[in-house]
Specification:
single chain; about 725 residues; alpha/beta; seven-stranded parallel beta sheet; six-stranded parallel beta sheet; 33 helices; binds adenosine-5'-diphosphate; binds zinc ion
């Protein structure tokens, strides 16, 4: 007999996963028992697997009803990439191709068939279905059957007939709907009274929620995006016009952004969705029309540029972030005028009952934004789920309890940056200089050559903005009036610098995302090699483009993260990576392996050494790595700038000295300013080494080491070499 546990080998070989997510096992067991199922799981909970895995084990074909034609191709491509035979039939296919697919299905060459609900009304299609051996009917986005839901689809009513004409075929209905009324409606409409309901928690623990007062939304948005270069983001706007304005301004700033709203023609909308899904345009400024068709797993940021109408909408829209389970951020900009604007429209609703309900929903939404209560708790309690944790660990309220901290050093840095740039620039520019940005404007002004350039790289732009606000409040900085306000140091600020005074500020603790607890947690987060991750991302793009599939169909971010943390050096090692099933291994394995091998070679370290520099997990299933802005090299750099020696750093971090030197080399390659003087031997010795390099040329370190009579260590030679390379690159 097939049990859920007996499907574990298939889970590994087809999907590349070693265990089930919460409730998956229970749901799959129920499905395998041929009983009806209603699965209520949040977005990213892993619903698809609940019918895809049983489909492999059951005799016959699994029919999947899905409302979105645009998504079916990606879903089928994803299954095929895992070696599972899947097809779809919908109106996007020409008749001849539909015939072909039906033929393949009849011959038993297809395990999973996707179709849209409207097709069920076509008599010919019904006859075709009756000629098949149906094992299971899966109804995706089951809330579409309910008028109470936000995505009601009249065609979903066809499902009642489908159910009646196949009374003995079990049904599994799946939805991420959080409201009770819709759930009850699904059970009634689909007659699931005899079935079993599985309700998982709707807490999206990998999402960090925060609310920002809408002071200077454009610059607030820029800060968020600049901290997440190249990552996918959705910005929900109030109006069509606002989406276009924002997308235009973002483009002018060099971001790959597009607008999306219902007023665009369908070809443009389609193209925009595809550009987003294929990572060609990672940023979309959209109205809420952009939503259900979006099944992108690696959206890292959802911004609400203005206040949503309800918490349902807010939960739904923010839910599009982090489907792959990796930490992601949801930021709401809240300003009173936005609420007033919504109220203006509510006043014009004619139906009194509807008007009242809209007003109540908006009030709840505004409460959420304004009250100092854990955001997660507010959301979950709104949907009737109790949340007992004292501190959710992932919202601004829980994380941002302000601490009085010593801000002397950062204040000095900021004031110096204002002085050095001539007191002629606004907050945003000063932040760019402090953060070490090298965009065109900075370079043209020569601000990348100032000593203050990049001196506050360790802070996020949001933190810098907060601190600058604090310095204004303390009267050390002043902001001019007018359309383009500039910052200037006040007399008090000058005195602060001159007298070397100290300063304490009440500052929020660091940004939520970096501190988030993972949902599938066990042990500590893994560190990964960021540059390898970027290289693998590039390989993924190449392969995906060549095959005309979205990059995430090749491998998800989670798999790439594991690869850049564990450095698999053989196909066998690669096969054990999360998300690498048998088919993907055969199809993509060697290409990715080459990229990893190349990277390892160029690092000059044996893979074991590289791996040792990443914390390992024993016995337990390693947890997907946290989305970390800091790399292992950055951690080394931090200690380095505190004046620790290589051996001290090695000791503190529990790594080999060679590993630390490797970090320093990579930091140097990345162009990070390093103070090598402390690490190097005195000038006399350095000259001697320099001569040896000149004599031996680009020969191996070994020959130089021998030439010098083995008086210096390899590590010293490596550091010296770095220094010489830098000298050559430095502008005169
Ligand atoms: P939903 O449809 O509920 O939003 P998906 O089916 O898209 O969720 O799954 C969310 C993510 O979780 C996907 O990236 C999927 O590959 C991954 N996933 C699903 N099941 C597992 C599992 N058992 N182990 C690890 N990851 C899984
Ligand atoms: Zn909280």
């Amino acid at each position: 007999m097939t049990t859920a546990t007996s499907l574990l080998p298939a889970l590994r070989s087809y999907f590349g996963y070693d265990s089930f997510l919460p409730l998956q096992e229970e749901i799959i067991a129920n499905v395998l028992d041929r009983r009806d199922t209603l699965a209520l799981m949040p977005t990213g909970g892993g619903k698809s697997l609940c019918y895809q895995l049983p489909a492999l084990a059951l005799e016959g074909i699994t029919l999947v009803i899905s409302p979105l034609i645009a998504l079916m191709k990606d879903q089928v491509d994803g299954l095929e990439a895992n070696g599972i035979h899947a097809r779809y039939i919908n109106s996007s296919l020409p008749g001849s191709e539909i015939q072909q697919v039906q033929e393949q299905v009849r011959r038993g060459q297809v395990k999973i068939l996707y179709t849209a609900p409207e097709r069920l009304a076509i008599p010919g299609f019904n006859r075709f279905l009756h000629s098949l051996d149906l094992a299971l009917i899966a109804i995706d986005e089951a809330h579409c059957i309910s008028e109470w839901g936000h995505e009601f689809r009249p065609e979903y009513r066809n499902l009642r007939q489908l159910r009646q004409s196949f009374p003995s075929v079990p049904v599994v209905a799946l939805t991420a709907t959080a409201t009770q009324r819709v759930r009850d409606d699904i059970i009634n409409q689909l007659d699931l009274h005899q079935g079993k309901v599985f309700l998982s928690s709707f807490n999206r623990s990998n999402l960090a929620y925060s609310v920002q007062i809408k002071k200077d939304p454009w610059n607030q948005l820029l800060s968020l995006l600049q901290d997440r270069q190249g990552q996918s983001a959705i910005i929900y706007c109030f109006s069509r016009q606002e989406t276009e304005d924002l997308a235009g301004s973002l483009k002018a700033q060099g971001f790959n952004a597009l607008a999306y709203h219902a007023g665009l023609d369908s070809a443009t909308r389609q193209r925009t969705q595809e550009d987003f899904i294929h990572d060609r345009a990672p940023i979309i400024a959209a109205t809420i029309a952009f939503g259900m068709g979006i099944d992108k797993p690696d959206v890292r940021l959802v911004v609400h540029y203005s206040l949503p109408k309800s918490l349902e909408g807010y939960y739904q829209e923010t839910g599009r972030a982090g489907r792959d389970g990796l930490p992601s951020d949801c930021v709401l900009f809240y300003g009173y005028t936005d609420k007033a604007r919504q109220e203006y429209f509510i006043k014009r609703i004619e139906d009194a009952q509807e008007r009242l309900s809209a007003r109540e929903k908006l009030a709840k939404m505004a409460d959420f934004a304004q009250s100092p209560v854990c955001r997660r708790r507010t959301i979950l309690e709104y949907f009737g789920e109790a949340f007992s944790a004292e501190n959710c660990g992932g919202c601004d309220i829980c994380l941002e309890s302000r601490d009085l901290v010593d801000a002397t050093e950062i204040a000095q840095k900021i004031l110096s940056a204002v002085v050095r740039t001539g007191q002629r620039f606004g907050t945003n520019h000063v932040i760019q200089v402090l953060a070490g940005a090298r965009d065109k404007r900075i370079r043209e002004l020569g601000h990348d050559r100032l000593s203050v350039h990049g001196i506050a790289k360790d802070r996020t732009r949001d933190e810098l903005r907060e601190i600058i606000g604090g310095l204004q409040a303390e009267g050390l900085l002043a902001r001019s009036q007018g359309e383009y306000p500039t910052l200037a140091v006040t007399p008090a600020g000058r005195e602060f610098l001159k007298e070397r005074q100290s300063l304490n500020l009440a500052l929020p603790k660091p940004t939520p995302a970096t501190e988030l607890n993972r949902p599938r947690k066990s042990g500590q987060a893994m560190e990964y090699d960021q540059s390898l991750f970027e290289e693998l991302r590039a390989s993924r793009r190449e392969m995906a483009d060549a095959q005309g599939v979205p990059p995430f169909v090749v491998f998800g971010d989670v798999s790439l993260w594991y690869m850049s943390a564990q450095f698999p050096m053989s196909l066998e090692e690669l096969a054990s990576i999360h998300g690498v099933g048998q088919t993907k291994l055969e199809r993509y394995g060697s290409k990715f392996l080459q990229a990893i091998q190349r990277h390892v070679e160029s690092s000059g370290l044996p893979p074991a050494e590289l791996r040792r520099s990443q914390p390992r997990h024993h016995g337990v299933q390693p947890e997907p790595p946290k989305l970390q802005r800091r790399t292992t090299e950055d951690a080394t750099n931090e200690l380095l700038s505190q004046g620790l020696s290589v051996s001290q750093i090695a000791q503190q971090r529990g790594l080999a000295e060679t590993t630390i030197i490797g970090h320093i080399e990579r930091l140097s390659q990345r162009g990070v300013e390093l103070d090598l003087a402390k690490l190097l031997p005195d000038n006399e010795a350095l000259d001697e080494i320099r001569k040896a390099f000149e004599v031996c040329g680009a020969a191996s370190l070994k020959s130089i080491w021998e030439y010098l009579g083995t008086q210096f260590t390899y590590d010293t030679l490596r550091l010296a070499r770095m220094r010489f390379r830098r000298e050559r690159q430095a502008p005169d």
